[in-house]
Amino acid sequence: MKYYVGIDLGGTNTKLGLVDESGNIIFTTIAKTDSIEGFSETIKRLSNILKAQIETSNVSFSDVKSVGIGVPGPVLNNRIVKFWANFPWKNGVDLALEFEKNLGIPVKADNDVNVITLGEMWQGAGQGYKNVLGLAIGTGIGGGIIVDGKLISGLNGAGGEVGHIKIEHNGKLCGCGQKGCWEAYASATGIIREAQSRLAVNKQNLLYKMTKGRDLEAKDVFDAAKQGDKFSLGIVDYEAEKLALGIGNLLNILDPEIVVIGGGVALSGDFLFDKVKEKIKEVAFPSTLETLKIVTAKLGNDAGILGAAYLGMQG
Amino acid sequence: MKYYVGIDLGGTNTKLGLVDESGNIIFTTIAKTDSIEGFSETIKRLSNILKAQIETSNVSFSDVKSVGIGVPGPVLNNRIVKFWANFPWKNGVDLALEFEKNLGIPVKADNDVNVITLGEMWQGAGQGYKNVLGLAIGTGIGGGIIVDGKLISGLNGAGGEVGHIKIEHNGKLCGCGQKGCWEAYASATGIIREAQSRLAVNKQNLLYKMTKGRDLEAKDVFDAAKQGDKFSLGIVDYEAEKLALGIGNLLNILDPEIVVIGGGVALSGDFLFDKVKEKIKEVAFPSTLETLKIVTAKLGNDAGILGAAYLGMQG
Asked: Based on the domain organization, do A139 and A278 belong to the same domain?
């Protein structure tokens, strides 16, 4: 049996896992990333944790064929991290090479949402499909585009940066500094912004009562809406409309078989997606909707490890 | 030497050509499509014209290896035309099979703008690139997306239907029946609509004088603007802004190496594109612009034949 390492490199924690060729997870472990100690030192420590963990398993290191890594940032040629989001590391470093030095087997890296989408295609909600649009809707909106089984990473590693398509000219300010980005409207942050803006002029609602005296979360809006709060239902409608606008645009460009949506906002499931499917008819080309599936991601925290393992496996 | 047929099937005329493996055009000929005579009859007649033309050339039919066809409509599996734009033919017919019956060699079909983009990549403005976004901006806006040398045709043949991404919620009515489509703003038709709308309230300008008593064309707007007409320059700015909005969105999704723009609007060249390049900075992710080229298509009327020949050649 052949085995593959998947690593989900995060700003705070790094998940490391070993997967067999059928997608069974042999182990996963979590380590503090502690990127502050420096690029080479951190990679060395994480590599040692990985090797130690493999030694305590029943798998021989010689049966481990490759390593895949998901990274929060754009990656060039499956090796170079163009820039790091929330890491004090130099931009443009060869992350794959650094792991290869320590582990002695081939390493491939890609953007984390790209990797998650691969995982969902291999073992999750996208199983059986080769043309998959993956969306991670949380603080921002990330995208992974798979065509014919392969990721579109783009010339500058910016393929799938769908959170920054503009859905309104000179619209809401986005964290990226530009205006009118999709994620400024349809991410969890976008929901919170819209809710706060509406609450400033309307306090006669359940959402206000529920969240008085504490920070509002996107989940609160869905919870209040599910209890019938009209005010919150209006915000969910707004969210569905903005989601439909971005997804519909992507359908017109990519015409995929399935859209797999993960991240915090996806947890509201069909309560939100049923509205999205209705509103998307005004945006997407009818033929793109004929057999399209829009589903919730299934793998949760394991998506990053499984996708990274699969990335390495693709050779 | 091996030879390849390229066919550009149009509503009025059909261009047929023979190309060698290096992209040299042996001949091209134009025939009336006359689709009214029926699907099988038209294909048979066009096939006979092609065979007769090859006989009068120095090429033996046995050296002709394949046929490629560009079609105004979405094509499934390089064979089936999902629906015909402006043809009285049944939707869902196997166009490739019908030509194969008459010609006895393998046939592949794809959407016409997809095929043109292939042609520009092979022999035109996109030569040397493998990740190309092709745009045809005329009456509408069509798109062809090539990733790693291969077209993204989409599950329903709707890949690259970029003219119908929405750039404004509940915006201008589009010919497709939906609202806010990119082509409702940035196509030649979009320019004419905007010019007519502005002319209704301002007749103190060169454009009005130039076009009084006849139909206005998009070209008039550029001609007047080049002569310094402020009114027309305002419309060109509008066009540049809308073009930048759509192209910028596509860059954030696909991150290509080069954008090749054809169609009537592209004839205005750098006069328009320089403004687009300026405005696109507010839309596209900065990393997608680092090495990006935006250029005018080079092949003109030959793009369809060369691209179709190359489509068939790809086997």
From this structure: yes
Range 76-105 of A in CB contact (< 8 A) with B: 82
Tell me whether B248 touches chain A (CB under 8 Å). yes
Gap between the Cα atoms of B166 and B117, Å rounded: 23
Report the CATH number at residue B55.
3.30.420.40
| Count of domains forming chain A | 2
Do B106 and B136 belong together in one domain? no
Same domain, A148 and A274: yes
Same domain, A149 and A91: no
> Nearest-CA residue of chain B relative to A148?
B152
pLDDT digits (tens, 9 = 90+) for B111-128: 999 999 999 999 999 999
Q: Are A233 and A225 in contact (CB under 8 A)?
A: yes
Closest-CA residue to A247 (of A219, A281, A224): A281
* A283/B157 Cβ within 8 A: no
- Summarised one tens digit per residue, pLDDT across range A60-104 is 999 999 999 999 989 999 999 998 877 999 999 999 999 999 999
Question: In angstroms, rounded to a whole number, what is the distance separating the alpha carbons of residues A124 and A116?
Answer: 10
Residues of chain B contacting A249 with CB distance shorter than 8 Å: 165-166, 249
Domain identity same for B191 and B266 = yes
Domain that holds residue A12: 3-121+302-313
Q: Between chains, do A257 and B291 touch, taking CB under 8 Å as contact?
A: no
Pair B70, B203 in one domain: no
Which residues in chain A have their CB less than 8 angstroms from residue B292's CB? 155
Task: Please provide the distance, in angstroms rounded to a whole number, between the alpha carbons at the two ends of chain A.
Answer: 17
Half-sphere exposure of A219 (CA within 13 A, CB side): 5
